[in-house]
Amino acid sequence: SYDNLAGRTAIVTGAASGMGAATARLLAAHGARVALLARRTDRLDDLAAKITADGGQALAVTTDVTAPASVRAAAARVRETFGGADLVVNAAGVMLPNPVAAGRSDEWARMIDTNLSGALHVIDAFRADLAAAGAAHRPADLVNISSIGAHLSFPDYAVYGATKAALTHLSEILRTEFGPLGVRVTNIEPGLTGTELGDHIDNVSLAAQLDGMHAAIPALTSEDVADLIAFTVTRPARVNLRQLIVLPTAQS
Ligand code: NDP
């Protein structure tokens, strides 16, 4: 069980849907105060209302992780409402596959700015909070959601895969900086998961290919990934699960 989440303050980016929303719900159900960060205010408000109705504590903070000022404002708002954060989950992400030869520099920028730079802006805005928790010998966690795409040579996913490989490597090296401060860094690499991630694909055949994968194998659910995150952050403070790869059983 996850009974030592009470009293913790969690930041979850990408909380408007999918893994971020499921993670926020699960952490809140076990007593954590959760700040919900994403761009769609209506989604965040709905989720905050659900969590509150279930007896939890949630704060919706409309945030664009690609904009450092937006992330800094969110951090200030969380601090004044809940105090410092001791658990940060970077789940915000976008996946926009296309051949590199399509020259979609607009998509490259969105993926790099969200999946890599966005995570960095969030880390920067909350690192002092995490370090303060670590220094006080309280559990402190940074969880980054990368992807099995960091390792696969999936055709037409070159830029997405590159942002995820960068996030995986960032997590690994950042751990050597944060670990001595008492802050655990965990990188999670899920495989196919049923979420809204594919809804933004504008390449018709690649959207159909992803639909075909979902039709062929039972994907993970957002709740499966949330469960792993809750498990990871409730281990004794000396235990750092550094890297988790989780795939649907039928995904090769
Ligand atoms: P979703 O699309 O459901 O969730 C992504 C979330 O990111 C949304 O809530 C979205 O909310 C938010 N987001 C996107 N851009 C921004 C931004 N600029 N600022 C703030 N929030 C933003 O998909 P998933 O739950 O699947 O994605 C979660 C993570 O898991 C992503 O990093 C994804 O790459 C990764 N992943 C997903 C897999 C899958 O098969 N689904 C497999 C492996 C990894 P809003 O639009 O309101 O901002």
Automatic annotation (TrEMBL):
| Database matches in PROSITE patterns | ADH_SHORT
Name the Gene3D superfamilies for this protein.
NAD(P)-binding Rossmann-like Domain (3.40.50.720)
An annotated Gene Ontology molecular function: oxidoreductase activity, acting on the CH-OH group of donors, NAD or NADP as acceptor
Q: Name one GO cellular component term.
A: membrane
Q: Which PANTHER family match?
A: DEHYDROGENASE/REDUCTASE SDR FAMILY MEMBER 7B, DEHYDROGENASE_REDUCTASE SDR FAMILY MEMBER 7B
Q: Which family does it belong to?
A: Belongs to the short-chain dehydrogenases/reductases (SDR) family.
- Please state what the protein is called: NADP-dependent 3-hydroxy acid dehydrogenase YdfG
